[in-house]
Each structure stands twice: as C-alpha cells, then as structure tokens.
Amino acid sequence: MSAPLVLDAAAVTAACSPADAVAALRAALAGGLDPAADLPRQGVSLGAGELLLMPSDGGGDLRHVGIKLATVAPGNAALGLPRIQGSYVLFDAATLGVVAVLDGIALTTLRTPAVSVAAVLDRLREAAGPVGTAGPTSTDGADGSAPANDPLRVAVIGAGPQAHGHVATLADALTGRPLDVAQLVRDPARTAATEGARIAGARLVRLGGPEADDALRAADVVVCATSAREPLFDAALVADHAVVIAVGSHEPDARELPAGLLARATVVVEDPGAALREAGDVVLAIADGALTAGDLVPMRDVVTGAVRPDPKRPLVFKSTGMSWEDLVVAEAVLDGA
C-alpha cells in the first residue's frame, strides 16, 4: 500500500480554486447529499482550549470518508501563534485506508467562503443577469440592484482569513463582474499597519461611522467574518436586494446580525438542526420573537431550486460550518492534486 499523499497549505490552495470548490459543493448537493444526515461534530475541552473532531461519510455517496482534527487555543494570540490549527485525514470509502492528509486550516479557509458563495450564487446571478447586460433592474431600480457589468458592491466586516477568502471567492465565482469592496474594521489604522490584514484594493472604513453606514446601505453583499458577540450594525442599513453572509460565530449565545434583519429576510442555513444547535444569529433571533424554526430554509433547497427566495427581501446565509463541506472540498483538492 502506498504512503498517503501529504498536502501542505500551499498544495491545498494550488490544487483547487475557490470557484472549483463552489462548484464541487453545489454538485454534491444537486447530486443528493443531505446535510441533515451529516455526522455530528464533537468538542473536547482541553487545558489550553478545545479539540474539535469533525467526521463525515458524505451520506455514503462520496468516494471517500474523512475527519478534520482541529484545535482552538485562545491563548495562542499572545504567543504569536495561530488560534486555530489542524489537519484533515481523507480515507478511501471502501477500504478505509488513509489516502491523504491535508492542511486543515487551508482546507477550512478554502471551504468556508465556498459554502457561502455556493448558497447565494443563484441570487447573485439572477439579480444581475448575464454579464454585460442589464439585470432585471438598474441602479435606478426600486431594489437598488445593478447591471452585471457594474461593480458588485461588497461590504466586508473583518480583517482575518475569512474576510479575505470571501472576497477572493466572490471574485473567482463571478468571473467578469468587478468588485467594489469596502472593508469595515474597528481600527483602520491598525488594520493598515498589520501585515495581511488589509484586503487588496479595498477601501478601509471605520465600522460604526457614517462612511461605514453608507457602505452598508449601498452593498449588494455584506460579509460578516468577525469574533463579535453582539450585532455589528443596524438592520435598517441593509437594502432589500442585499445578500448578507455571516460566518464568524458558531456559538448559540453569540451573533453578528441584528434580529430585525432576520425578521425581514429569507434566512438560509446549511441545515436547520445544526443552526438551531449552534447558530447564535438564529437562536437569539428566535428568542427575540423575530424568527421561527419553520422560517429556516435549507441550503440544499436553494441550490437545487426547490426554494426560490423572494428577490424583494434580503437573503441571509448563516453558516456554522459542517463536516460534509470539508469532505466534499477535500475530494476536490485531491482530484486537483
């Protein structure tokens, strides 16, 4: 038996583009993969933090099974070390032999924005129409959306890998559509001075200020990728045509989005069961009376066309991260490698 393939961060990134990861996720859902059947992840408390175990068999429809082993060490920031570290082990589904070991953080950095874009891609395409032609409305239209040859207005809150990753994935998946990006952060000077924190080509804007409010009002897409535990902005700032993506929290008592936004939006989640366990944006909005469990729309239904969200309402995608996503993208990486 040959030794397993070992793919470091650079190899993972080189083997699968963001657009390819988006396509793999959508193909898996269209092919019948059911996120509700995913294996539950487990957390083990440790002295320095937490060990996360994320296994998946893809519902039995994929060629491989796999598990991500990740650690979360809050104290590492003070030591200049990554807060989250880990590896992904991919096994042959028939023999259960180890096929590959992937850098787990690079895989997560690739798959998280790919899941977000996979969930909202149809909305973004339908709102704009074919590239180079006017969409169903112009910038003077009632819903504020723009023709496809106009820039996609993106407001990104955050300065970490997922803020960067979502911009890169939007650009790769929406080939031919330029992006106009505003990066909203609490301390623009610090972000500008921190290596790798500023998104290339983005305007740095102080979160909570009037320029940030203007960016949110104008945004076609709002991405929240922070460690915030309270809402980041006022719900009234988000336009009816906007897509809002929230990926920063997977704890039931923390949220980035105001309940008022979820009350007037179509709320899409990877799986309602997982969202009700882990998604504070959803759990707390339900507790506030702004949302019910029955309002949640599974991502699978949107991707397959079983549900078509109302284009006159904001579309919110709340992600907590699920094990099947790592497995699907790990297979795509392996194919590319």
From TrEMBL:
Keywords, in A-Z order: Lyase
Pfam families per the UniProt record, alphabetical: OCD_Mu_crystall
UniProt-listed InterPro entries: NAD(P)-bd_dom_sf (IPR036291), ODC_Mu_crystall (IPR003462), ODC_N (IPR023401)
Enzyme Commission number(s): 4.3.1.12
GO molecular function, one term: ornithine cyclodeaminase activity
Annotated Gene3D superfamilies: NAD(P)-binding Rossmann-like Domain, ornithine cyclodeaminase, domain 1
Gene Ontology CC terms: cytoplasm
Protein's name according to its UniProt entry: Ornithine cyclodeaminase
Species this chain originates from: Promicromonospora sukumoe
